[in-house]
Each structure stands twice: as C-alpha cells, then as structure tokens.
C-alpha cells in the first residue's frame, strides 16, 4: 500500500509545504499534495496539535537564557512556591532561579535535541533504507539483517550502553539518540523503495538510461517524502521522551543548562516530589503537552498521506 | 519442527559470539576504566595499587586475550564482582533479571490479555462507539510516556492518597509477604501494562481488519460457518503473525527496558542496575547486564520464529 496518493510527481509533494494554499480543497481535479493537505486540515486534533507546538516553539524562541541561569541565594528567594515572589510567576528552585524561565529555556534545549537527533536518524535511515531497497540482493539482505538485530534491542537500553561509552552531555545525547533510533526508519523506507522500484515510471526512467544517483535523487527520494515526514514527526515525540528519560537519570543534558528532562531530576528525592510540586509540574506538563501535540500532528499527517504502515511505537 | 528448531539454534551461536565481541570491544575501549573507579583520589596516587588493580583485572593483556579470558569466565558464570558492593555480578544480574521480569512480565501479560480481546472487539465493531472510545484510549496509551504516568501516579496514589507504597519491592523491616509485594507491584505494573495494552490493541485491531475483508473469510461465511468460529478459527489465526512479531519484539523488554519506571518506583531491576553501573563506571556489571540482554534477544527471536512456524505451517517448509 505504500505509494498511493502522492506518487505522481515530485511537485505534488513540494506543494504540501506552504500553508498559503488553504482555500483550495476539493475532491476532484486537484493534485495529490493538495488532497493530502485538505485531509490534514480536516483533522481537527492535528490542527490543535500544530497550534500547541507553534506556541511552545514561540515561547522557546523568546525565552531568556539569562533569566534561566541567574541564581539568587538570598534568604527568602530559594524554593519559593508560585505567587510568593513578584516577577516569579511559577516560583523559584533551590538556587533561587526562575522556574518559568527554566521551563521555557528547558523546552528550547529539549526541542533542539529532538530536531537534531531526528535529522540524524532520518538521514541514516534514508541512506540505509534507500541503499537496501534500491540495490536489493545481498546488500539488502545484509543491511536488513543488521536492522533486525538493532531493532530487537530495546532502544533505551542501547542508549544507556552508549551513554556509558561516550559520557553525558548535550552533543553526546543528540549523537547517540540519532545513531540509535534510525533502524525503524530504514525498514520503512526500504519497504517503500522496494515497492517503488516495480513502478512503471521507474522502469521508464531506467529504460532511457539515467544514472543510479539521478534515479534516486529525482525519482525515488521525492516519492518517499510522505513516509519520511510521518516517521520524523513521530520521531520527535519519541526523542522528547528519550531526552527526558536520560536527563532525568542524570545521563543526558547536564546542569546548569536546563532541559525538560533534567528539570525532573529533582523528583528523585521523594520529599521534593511530594512538597515542591511547582518544581516538577511545569516541565512534566510541557512534556505531556508536547508529546501529545506531536502525536496528534503525526496521526493527522499519516491519515493525510495515507501512510498506515508508518507506526509510532 | 525439531530440525527447524535445531537449525535456528545453530545459527544463533555465531550471532551471539559476534554480539559478545562487539560488546566487549566497545566497553573495553570506553574512556575511564575500572582503575578510576577503584582508586580513591582522596587517598592520593599509589602506583603500586594501580599496578595491582591492572594485574588483578588483566588489563595489561592484549585485547584478544582479555576477550577470550572474559568469555571463558562468563561461560562458567564467572562475571566478576560489583564495584559498589563487591557482590558477584552473576548473582546480582540474576536478581535484577528476576525483579525486572516480574514487573515488566506482569505488565506485558496484563497488556496482552486485555489488549488482544479489546483489539478484536474494536475491529469487529469498526466505527462503533466502543471502537471510537478504544481508539482514543489507545492513542493515550501509546503517546503518554510511562515516565510521566509514573511520576503522576506516584504523586497521586503514593503520596497524596497513600493508597500504595512509594517505592521498592517490599516494606523495609517487615516480614516479606506476598500481599505486601503485590501492593508494591500494582502501580508500576498497571502503568506499564497500560502502554502494552494500547500497543497490542492497535496491532490486533489492524491485523484483524486486514484479514476480515479477504476472500477466504467471505467463503467461510457463505458456507454457513458462524460468526464467532470465522472470527477465531479463520480471521484471528491469520492475524496472529503480526501479533506474534510484536510479542517477540517485546520480550527483550523484560530485561529492564522499563529503566525509568524502575528508577521512579525504586524497583531493583536490571534497568536500575544498569543506571547504577554507569554511575559507578562498573564495566563488569554493564557487561553482565548487556550479556543477559543479548541472550534474551536471541532466545526471544528464536522463540518468535518457532511460534511463526507453529502459527503458519507455510513457514515451516520454506
């Protein structure tokens, strides 16, 4: 079922991007890209998700790094619940830092981790998947065998082993998440490419003798954009959770840089979890909001592109 | 069938050896060695102590000798000792494995036994109210991270309502008893189980919907086979393959993949042990856990293949 709805031209897919074509939604005589856009826009939860993500990203962009890192150890400034100190809307942490600012800047860090590592994993997944699917034969067999082995290990445990090997840190975490989570993408892309290879227009292109590189760049890649976008979207949600998990365990982003995950690190002390709720409720809420929003958008995109085979778990 | 199993077993051996080589090389090459973990900086630098540790752990030997020694020892169950407690890694890993399997296994059984029937129901009543509700629940179960559910659940049920204990496997100072253990198990198992239920529900629903429209189902129906029999004997049997795949892929997760849930609830499983091992830079412990993980992955892959062959005779003869 891999290619219907978006397999005519690469133009159709590129038309998905600009949101300016909103009004043109019609059942007949429109390109597959516009039909997909129309389906997406009718998916109400996906629109809600998109707006939520937009707001969170906007906050992350305007957030002040300085406010998030400024400590204030004066008496009466540390560990204050919301409403006690003017100008500190969500209260302060044990070092007198502004929780609101830390949550916002933490979001920036978490989102950046997600974007970079998803780019890496989608990149590797595409290269491996296209290579296996397009070349076929023993290359396909060997690569997919390897992908199967990688996929049969629980991701979080692989991440822990890699965390031991390369140590904690922001860049390390982006790299390790990127390099550990590509296998599912590779398998999805490979399936798409195998199906594409049999299509008439690919055969036609081969008959006129175009090179392999050109074939992949102009005929294969534009036709697998839809599953790639869906895979990458769900990937963002997964990475947000991986970042949160690793940083919570103290193996990810290191303080004083805030991230949604390492802001939750304090909950490992039970008394903080019980009594200092204002320290962990904001980042936890943001994680839940972001993950749900991204999943809504992912669901919307999957329905719009008719990509049931691209799963999010 | 037996030849099939034996063949699968023989293929697994080189794969297992390959994995051990990779694991060993990577972990041996990791920065920071056991010397750093064992030498106390506050006692000052003592070259004799360092030399003793290097000799004790055979770190002066070339890599391939170290690997063969490690492998020979491992095969005899000799995995070294934990840095933190001095306890043998083998017994620690077994203890962790037991605890992790109890928690994740319970969650998985809950998820499978609730998720599959609900998935069938959801598929049979496609587009009904029940299907709509179940699809919503599935979405939540798949998207909500068990990590957040764990923190929220612990706060609400453990700290505010005081319905369940706030962590660990049993009450300290109390005589270990089954009821107390169940009280500790229930919240983390339910939280993890919710996620598994959602995944199995979604897969079962999709798998059943995939087959119910096929010709052979219609043939069975037109021959007068009753609805329930068609569903169970004809549709479900063919929908089993993707479900078995999913179970097979989930089994390795009993080896402590619920790292964060284990840590949130202080459940002393392999996942939590792995985190402690990383903090102590205890490479023997990490090797031990990774070894168990690799073995579990191989065994569950094999079991999955055997289950395929059982569910679909066509696979056996290929």
Topology, element by element:
The complex is a heterodimer of chains A (313) and B (318).
Chain A: H1 10-14, H2 32-42, H3 44-62, H4 65-69, H5 99-135, H6 137-151, H7 155-166, H8 170-180, H9 183-197, H10 200-207, H11 212-220, H12 225-248, H13 260-263, H14 270-275, H15 277-305
Chain B: H1 2-29, H2 34-38, H3 47-56, H4 63-75, H5 89-124, H6 129-143, H7 146-160, H8 178-212, H9 215-222, H10 227-250, H11 259-264, H12 270-280, H13 283-311, H14 313-316
Helix pairs in contact in B: 1-13, 5-6, 5-8, 5-12, 5-13, 6-8, 7-8, 8-10, 9-10, 10-13, 12-13
Low-confidence stretches of chain B: none
**How many helical stretches of chain B?**
14
Number of helices of chain A: 15
Portion of residues in beta strands of chain A equals: under 5%
| Strand portion of chain B | under 5%
Helix content of chain A: 55-70%
Query: What is the distance, rounded to the nearest whole angstrom, between the alpha carbons of the first and last residues of chain A?
Result: 20 Å
Rounded to an integer in angstroms, the radius of gyration calculated over CA atoms of chain A is: 22 Å
Question: Helix and strand string of chain B, N-terminal first?
Answer: HHHHHHHHHHHHHH
Structure, explained:
The complex is a heterodimer of chains A (313) and B (318). Chain A is built from 15 helices and no strands. Chain A has 313 residues and is mainly alpha-helical. Chain A is 67% helix and 0% strand. The radius of gyration of chain A is 22 Å and the shape is elongated. With 318 residues, chain B is mostly helical. Chain B is flat. Chain B starts with a helix and ends with a helix. The A-B interface holds A 149, 151-154, 156-157, 160-161, 163-165, 167, 237, 241, 244-245, 248-251, 264, 267-268, 270, 273-274, 277, 280, 284, 287-288, 291-292, 295, 299, 308, 312-313 and B 15, 19, 23, 26-27, 29-32, 139, 142-145, 147-148, 151-152, 154-155, 159, 166-167, 199, 202, 206, 249, 252-253, 255-257, 259-260, 263-264, 271, 274-275, 277-279, 281, 283, 286, 290, 293, 297, 300-301.
